[in-house]
Amino acid sequence: MAKKISILIVDDEESVRDSLYNWFIEDGYQVECAENAKTALTMLQSESYHIILADIKMPGMDGLEMLKRIKSLKSDAIVIIMTAFATVDTAVQALKDGAFDYVTKPFDPDDLSHLIRNASKQISLIEENEILKEKVISLENVEDMIGQSEAMQEVFREIESVAQSNASVIITGESGTGKELVAKAIHANSPRKFFPMVSVHCGALTESLLESELFGHEKGAFTGAIYNRKGRFEMADSGTIFLDEIATISPKMQVELLRVLETKSFVRVGGNKEISSDFRVLCATNRDLKSMVEKGLFREDLFYRLNVVNINVPPLRDRVEDIPLLIEYFIKKYCASMNRPPIPVEPSALQRMESYAFPGNIRELENMIERAIVVGNGKKIMLKDLPLAKESVKPTFESLDDLGKKHILAILTKYSWNITVSAKALKLDRVTLYNKIKKYGLTPPK
Fold it and tell me: How sure is the predictor about 34, in pLDDT bands with cuts at 50, 70 and 90?
C-alpha cells in the first residue's frame, strides 16, 4: 500500500486550520497543522511533509520568508502560499522564490483539491531523488568540501557523527585548511539547518566591538549607537553561531562568553533586559588551545565547555592525493567565472604542485590556480605559470608558526614598521596584525 501524501498547514487562524484539516482528511491525506512559521520549521526538523501550505501573513516570520528558508535547504520542496490579499506582486514574488503555486482566500474546496492533486504528481519523482541522495554522504549547501583521501574521509565521518547532536565543537587546523567549511557542513546536516548559521571572526574585532557584535547594543549605549541592534547570539536563535579565531578573545570576553554558554542568556550593551537565545556553538582556531590553557592564556573552564568534540582538519601536505581533485575544482570555478572552457594542467606542473608543501594550504592552492589561469596562455596551465616554479619545493622542517613569523617580520621591516601599510601587504586587518606581533614577540628596531 502506497504511503499517504502528507500535508502541513501553516496559518495563524484556527478556523482556517480546522477547515483545511477536515477537507484534506476527508480526501484521504495525512494532515498536521502549525500556528506560525517558527513552529512549522521546528516540526520540519524532525518530520518531512510532501506538501506545505503556508499563509503569507503571520505574526513574526511571514510565509515568504518561511518559503525562502525551506527552499534554500530543500529546493524540490512543494510549498503553496495562501493569501487573502492577492496581488500581482505577491504572486510573482512567491513563484520567483520557488512556490509551487498560490491560492486566495476564501477557498473553493474543489479548486484546492485539484491543486493538491497536481502537486502530488511530482512527489514520486522527488522521492526517487531522495533515495539516490541517501546512497552518498550528504554535505548539503557546502562548497569546496572535496577529498578522497583517508584523512578527509575521517573528517566527513566526524561531521556526519556530530551533526545530529547539540554538542559544542572546536574545529582545529592550520590557516587555509577549510575550518569554516567544516562548520557549515555540520550546521547544514543538523536539525538546526532551517535556521541561521551566524559567523563571527573574533580576531578581526577589538574587545569592545566584539562585545557589541556578540551581544548587540541599545540606542545611546556609546557614541555612534543611534539605534538598537541585535547581537549575533540573538540572531542565531534556534540556529548555530560560529566563532572563528576563538583563541584571540580577551580574558574579559572569555568570562562573558562562558556565562552565555552556561545560561544561554545575555544583556545587550547599555541594556538591562535579559535576552534568551537557543543556539549551538561551533568555533575554530589554528592555535593550540590546550597549551594556552596550561600557560594561563585561555580559561580552562571555557576550554572544556567548548571542546566537547574536536575535529582536526588536516593540512594539504597530509592529503596529497586530493590535490588533483582540488585543482580540477578550482579550474572549473575560475574558468566559468571568466566564461572560458576548463583547461588541462601539463604533467610537469601537476607533479610540481603535488610535491610542494603548501604552507598556505587550500587557500594558497586556490590563489595559485586562479593566477595561473589569468597569466597563462589560456590553453593549459604550465609549470612557468606557477609562482612556485623557481622555488625549492622540498618541505622544510620549520613549523608554520616559524614561517609566519619570518614573513611578517620581513614585511614589517620592508615598510619600516608602518602597521597600516604592512597589514595591507599581508592582507590582514590591523587588529589581527597587532595580535600576531604580540604572539610572536616581535619588536621594532631601536
Answer: very high
Task: Using the CB atoms, write b or e for 241-252: b if 16+ within 10 Å.
Answer: bbbbbbbbbeee
Per-residue pLDDT band for 140 (boundaries 50, 70, 90) equals very low
Do residues 289 and 342 share a domain? no
Q: Say if CB 363 and CB 181 are below 8 A apart.
A: no
Helices (H), 109-149: 109-120, 123-133
CB 212 within 8 A of CB 265: no
HEC readout, 29-85: CEEEEECCHHHHHHHHHHCCCCEEEEECCCCCCCHHHHHHHHHHHCCCCEEEEEECC
Residue 140: inside a domain: no
Provide the pLDDT confidence category of residue 225 given band limits of 50, 70 and 90.
Answer: confident
pLDDT of residue 126: 61
Taking only the tens place, the pLDDT of each residue in 322-348 is 999 999 999 999 998 888 889 999 999
Q: How far apart are CA 265 and CA 215, in angstroms?
A: 10
For residue 391, being part of any structural domain is answered with no
- C-alpha dist (Å) from residue 197 to 7, 235, 438: 28, 9, 31
The dihedral built from the CA positions of residue 236, 240, 244 and 248, taken in this order, carries a sign that is positive
Task: Give the amino acid at 140.
Answer: E
Kind plus residue range of the DSSP H or E element containing 320: none
Instruction: Count the domains in the chain.
Output: 4
CA pair distance 327, 223, nearest whole angstrom:
48
Backbone torsion region of residue 147, taken as left when φ is above 0, otherwise alpha when ψ lies between -120 and 50, otherwise beta: left
Question: Do 255 and 335 lie in a common domain?
Answer: no
- Of the candidates 304, 214, 194, the residue with the CA atom closest to the CA atom of residue 257: 214
Q: What is the mean pLDDT of residues 87-103?
A: 80
431 and 361, same domain (yes or no): no
Q: How far apart are CA 192 and CA 189, in angstroms?
A: 8
Answer yes or no: are the C-beta atoms of 254 and 302 closer than 8 Å: yes
Same domain for 274 and 162: yes
Q: Are residues 14 and 158 both part of a single domain? A: no
Q: Does 250 lie in the same domain as 126?
A: no
Asked whether 313 and 177 are in contact (CB, 8 A), the reply is: yes
Report the C-alpha gap between 126 and 128 in whole angstroms: 5
Percent composition of the chain: helix, strand, coil (DSSP 3-state, to 5): 50, 15, 35
Q: Return the closest-CA partner of residue 189 out of 214, 145, 159.
A: 159
CB atoms near residue 270 (< 10 Å): 16
Radius of gyration, alpha carbons of the chain: 26
Domain co-membership, 161 together with 283: yes
Q: Which of 83, 101, 10 is nearest to 52 (CA)?
A: 10
Domain span at residue 47 reads 6-132
